[in-house]
Amino acid sequence: MELLRLATAGSVDDGKSTLIGRLLYDSKQVYEDQLESVERTSLARGDAYVDLALLTDGLRAEREQGITIDVAYRYFATPRRKFIVADTPGHTQHTRNMVTGCSTADLVVVLVDARNGITEQTRRHAFIASLLRIPHLVVCVNKMDLVGYSRERFDEIRQEFEGFATRLEIADLTFVPISALNGDNVVDRSGEMPWYQGTSLLHHLEDVHIASDRNLIDLRFPVQRVVRPRSEAHHDFRGYAGQVAGGVLAVGDEVLVLPSGFTTTVSSIETADGPLEEAFPPMSVIVRLADELDISRGDMICHPRNRPAIGQDISAMVCWMTDAPLAVGAKLAVKHTTRWARALVREIHYRLDVNTLHSDPSVEELRLNDIGRIDMRTTSPLFYDEYRRNRTTGSLILVDETTDATVAAGMILHPGS
Amino acid sequence: MTYQLTHLDALESEAIHVIREVVAEFERPGLLFSGGKDSAVLLHLATKACWPQAVPFPVLHVDTGHNFPEVLAFRDRRVAELGVRLLVASVQEAIDRGEVTEDRSPGGTRNRLQTHSLLRAIEEHRFDAVFGGGRRDEEKARAKERVFSFRDEFGQWDPRGQRPELWNLYNGRHHPREHFRVFPLSNWTELDVWQYIEREQLDLPSIYYAHQRAVFRRDGLLLAVGPHSQPREDAPDEEVVVATVRYRTVGDATCTAAVESTASTPAEVIAETAVARVSERGATRADDRFSEAAMEDRKREGYF
């Protein structure tokens, strides 16, 4: 069974929680006691109907105010796949939460209310999904029952979205007309829309091809930890633990270690369950090398003729995630793969309007939920790839050195782009 | 070669990555080990993450004094097998020292008292990271918890002030006296845990499998008759019967209930879990029934 991580975007008004509630309920992941508890709370609050949003809104403040504050993770499985759903709120802190939920997603589901069509919020969600390089985007046109299951209305929304999406980079775009409330095209094909030739949403989630989404070309192995047991049983053992971030690592490969620049060969790939011939993302393994080299945490193992970029001048699109704004001259901690460094922000090129995609070069700072392009200089070199080429070696977080809070998510751009 | 991992391999790899990040970045980690199935899986993953070294950090059992003997036996067996150091934070001792007061009303438990002993042990041993076996599918408040979950100098959790957690870039930076709770099993479900137990052939306390036990029913829960829980004399409906039961969770013996079951192997438990209609906590934990936000409130104070 494979794992698929998906993010959902939309507001309660779009029927997002109803959709998630239905996916969970129809795949028998909602238990009777959980449903009873939701019914009790709905009744006590005086709701006219059982609010399935309460299944996901777990914090007291959320239940009292009827809003979603934070990303919630939900789980369901079918015989074919296990799904991890990052449910991101549509209201407050929208950009910050959606960026967080999308960072690990293979697929994003954007909900559109068939009556309202494409809104500013829809465009924002699609843009963030494309910025985070989520390979698969599913637009669920919901509440089809309220527009008489109209094919014309569905086609109209589809065309408008496709027109907008040509300005984005979305590898795989799918449209599904649904009614989350009635269950049309959610789990099973609906009899109400014979004109729709596609599959149900769940069937698509089970079927969508994700195996090719990882980068299996460029070997990247960030060293997480040097393993030297110094015990009787493993006296001479020396290995490098880490998670493969790209490409395929094989025993016998000639490899290059950064930053030292020495080359050597892979003598073995080890795990607690025995040795392996090959390792690929996202496997956690221990690599042993033929030569004893000076290697430490934060170093990078790659193939000699396929190296990541190496540099201290980093250009990135960042999402700013804290109240105090970011200004030129800020000094921050940066974490990239397994390496920490310090960074000096040297330039803010522009702020992107996530609704119109216009860039505004006149801004001098980035505020909470802003997305913009910055340049920074790091205290030590990073071994990185463009985010669009590799989401693991192309991503970074910025951390406030005083409060230790994570204040930005960064997606590295090509040097000189 | 398809270069595709199964869901269990992907979850295992993620957990190993998380554990190794902690070992690499923190000075004094510890691992909460109750002898329950989630902590058994967690400890197993720690041995894989640290291999070929032995697990270098101690395990901590917060002991309410109300234990199932099978669970204590399992705890001691695993600790001896792995050669790890076991620390016990005793709730009974905290009561004896007068640091906390026991709720002696009917149905009162020591559940909430564990927080005091846990936080005291964290201070005493100066842990800066404590692994826990918590899963996001267990409970609504847990669904919002980070993998690296920050605790202030009072051990408190601030659900609204959590750090965003992006990609696999965990931020464990903290000031002295602050610490992290780290949850490598965040993305696992009850079913995943059982599938993994079956695949890895993990040893568990025997009470996770069907056995005969004298039980009585209270508030819809099946409680064992034992030194720590007895039917009330004034409650005629708390009739003692012998039933075939197993435990889905293992906690304080006074507030952990059994479920009727004939499942005697991991495969049979998996088959049962796949069609269960009541959640793990709903079926077995009296402590979560206080209010909608019982878990959130306890977690804010520093609970597991």
Structural notes for this entry:
- The complex is a heterodimer of chains A (about 425) and B (about 300).
- Chain A is an alpha+beta fold and about 425 residues long.
- Chain A has helices at about 15-25, 30-45, 60-65, 95-100, 120-130, 150-165, 200-205, and strands spanning about 1-10, 70-75, 80-85, 105-115, 135-140, 170-175, 220, 225, 240-245, 250, 255-260, 265-270, 280, 285-290, 300, 310-320, 325, 330-335, 340-350, 360, 365, 370-385, 395-400, 405-410.
- Chain A is built from 7 helices and 24 strands.
- Chain A starts with a strand and ends in a 5-residue tail after the last strand.
- The mean pLDDT of chain A is about 90.
- Chain B has about 300 residues and is of the alpha/beta class.
- Chain B has 9 helices and 10 strands.
- In chain B, the strands form 2 sheets. A 6-stranded mixed sheet of chain B has the order 3-2-1-4-6-5, with helices on both faces.
- In chain B, helix 6 (about 190-200) runs antiparallel to helix 7.
- The termini of chain B are far apart.
- The model of chain B has no long low-confidence stretch (mean pLDDT about 90).
- The chains are: A alpha+beta (about 425), B alpha/beta (about 300).
- Chains A and B meet through helix 2, helix 3, strand 2, strand 3 and helix 4 of A and helix 1 and helix 2 of B.
